[in-house]
Amino acid sequence: MVQSDKNSSKTQVEEDYIANKENPGPAPEAFEKTDKSAGWLLFWVLTLIVVVLTVVWLLT
């Protein structure tokens, strides 16, 4: 198997080391943080499923 000098993956190899010395902090986040969450929806959906399954189990 012969290794080539080019990077075969879609991502590029980092070569600008001087820029990292000037700004050594972590990379900026890709997603914005929001206060909204799906926790309340998941809670009520699971509660509804448990109640429905309990009723079905009691009636059979």
Give the topology:
Blueprint: H1 17-22, H2 39-59
Describe the structure in your own words.
This protein is mainly α and 60 residues long. It contains two helices and no strands. It is rod-shaped. 0% of the residues are buried. The mean pLDDT is 76.
Short description:
By secondary structure, this protein is an all-alpha fold. It is built from 2 helices and no strands.
Structural descriptors:
rod-shaped; 60 residues; mainly alpha
Major sheet: size, sense and barrel closure? Answer: none
What's the tally of helices? 2
Beta-strand percentage? Answer: under 5%
Total number of beta strands: 0
Structural class by sheet pairing and helices: mainly alpha
Order of helices and strands: HH
Mean pLDDT, to the nearest integer, reads 76
Low-confidence stretches: none
Distance between the termini: 65 Å
